[in-house]
Amino acid sequence: MYRKEQYLRFFGTQYKVNIKKYWLWLRKEVRLLIILLLSTFFLSIALNIIFPLPDNIDYSQIVISSDSTVVHAFLSRDDKWRMKTELNEITPLLKKAIIFKEDRYFYYHAGVNYLAILRAMFNNIIQGKRTSGASTITMQVARLLEPKQRTYWGKIVEVFRASQLETKYCKDEILQLYLNLVPYGGNLEGVKAASVLYFEKAPNHLSLAELTALSIIPNRPNSLILGKDNDYIIKERNKWLKRFKAAELFPDQDIEDALNEPLDAYRHESPKIAPQYAYRMKTTFPELPIIATHLNYKKQIKVQNLVENYIKRLYNRNIKNSAVLVIDNQTNSVVTYVGSADFYNTDDAGQVDGVVAIRSPGSTLKPFLYGMAFDKGIATPKLKVTDVPVSYSGYEPHNYDEKYHGYITIEYALINSLNVVAVKILNQIKTSQFVNALKKLGFDQIRKDEKKLGLSVVLGGCGVNLEQLTKMYHAFANKGKFTDFNWLASDTTKGGFQAISAESAYMLTEIMTRVKRPDLPLEWQNSADLPKVAWKTGTSYGRKDAWSIGYNKNYTIGVWVGNFSAEGVQEMSGAESAAPLLFEIFNTLDHRSEDEWYDVPENIEFRLICSESGMPLNHFCKNIISDAYIPSVSSNEICNHLKMTYISPDSSISYCRSCRPELGFIEAWYPNYLPEMITFYETNQVNYVKIPKHNPECERVFAENNPEITSPVHNVAYYVDKTDSTEIMLSCNAANDVDKVFWYINDRFLKSCEPTQKVFFKPDEGKLKISCTDDKGRNSNAYINVKMINF
After folding, report:
1. Predicted model pTM
2. Catalytically active residues, by annotation
3. Between 20 and 30 A from 227 (CA), which of 103, 481, 596, 632?
């Protein structure tokens, strides 16, 4: 019993001693392990800082359409075709074939397959030469990123870079890098570049036979050339296809189809669709290797061909170029962009981008002006205004046809693009307000030239480009809301603002949809295929630019036709040179679109008006029509096209309330003509209803309807040649009841005459006061400064 207790005591003590020693040893080992791990970790960080992974790849920039088709490609900075393959373009078919051929254990090693290295070393020693390699896909990527001579030191560097790659990227990303860098001879690198330039398709559209052929070339990129060595490549391809079959990598039928597939691949030109658009995208987004856009490939090709063929028809007329922009109204995206008729025609400056080139807009700004007038309550579509000669401080606008039309409606003025009425409305709105509204819409050249612009801005006296005009009309199509275009596939419509109200946009649309108008091209006047669109044409001064911009619910299309040399052509106009192309494009892209059209906005109403004035009815109105208006915005002033006048029973004398006799008079209604209309009628010898001569015995002095001095212009300096007998003309507009006016110079009587008669006088130097008094005692003054000079 004693010995047993002694034994237990001895061994128990020994056990405790051993346990203690073990724990001391374990703590030491763990400490060393932690130190080793931390050292390795910090060494790894240090090595990565000192020797960073050279994975900043310079890709060839490519522009792709909405269906991922490459529409344009640019060389990388080192002059390589190296297009980036996206992960979603690496199909299971492509992945299986590449991994089976290059690195079957790709997903099982950490960048280096040491068993493969040992096997390769053994084989090379036995054979006395290099018979097989052991580089994994990761190591190949390392070598492609940092090419070095094939030495043992080079292999060590590869192993280090491979570990860096495995740490930074997942396996699929490493495979992506491999497919982006693998060589195909010459300046061609990467599966995508080879796929696009040899097969004209993306990698995810390659057949099994095609991708197998491409997988062979990187092993001998300079001796196996598609288009030159196709027969040999077929033999090598088929060898690998049979290996795939033996490994049961793909279905037998797929292998058989691939074995029988011919190979007619050869090197194609790089894609060069929409060159101006592509260059613009490259400049705007220089850091994106793949610029994914909303451009519609099929529509782009169609419209490019339409533009090219259309300009060929006009070329003999010395009209040599065109630009087109097509916007999808549902997505606010640019789907077609044609900068010129032929990019490679250097004789006619084909490389100019006509979409952004600054040109004169002609009459294309007028709809926006009228939209503003609707929103300010100044006008409604059927309001009557005067189209007669008028002067604004010496500026006298003229219509395109050099004719005047008297009383017309606003909608007639817009449909017929009458300059005089547009300037009259602009004068009411004020040029500064109109210019500020255009600046808000992004008209940059107008912003730069703001201080130089006057009333002529609405007639084309400013600089704009096709994109800006198309944006403005796109706002009309979008119920008056202005938004920026979406260029990239990732763009979404943000914000925006009401350029004009939805009600004004609807009224403009209804007016511009009408086909009974002078700017309907002759060739389309009896066509059953005329598309239903709202459109406006414009022709710049000197006939240097022809515009036609239109829209329906689906598309807004802007068309410019002309010469980049700014050479004018007598036969060129928006109606006959640009509108036909606009209609062709609409019929091509959106044939029979009239089934969808705009609904009447909730806040627009219709009212009965007098057709003589376009104003709400008065009791004397007989000709009644309907007109759209905006409640609480449009003017409610009632019709005043007639005015009641007291006359003698024989209609020979008119009276006012002051001189009217107690008996022997009647009430009669006479047209309430504006003074400018009377001048127009008298000048053009147009018969009109005149108010009888006023009672000569009347002693009343009238205070309203003063004569308006139209010449000379108030507050203007006149330069007169001392040696010449130059005279200054005096003219005025007077009311319908005026028979005679009296002219005074510096309060000295000059001459009396009929209101429409023009009077001339030879001025003295200095400041002059010009006075005009009518036979009712109403007076107007104008002040001028005459300066004598030697011409």
Report:
1. 0.86
2. 102, 363
3. 103
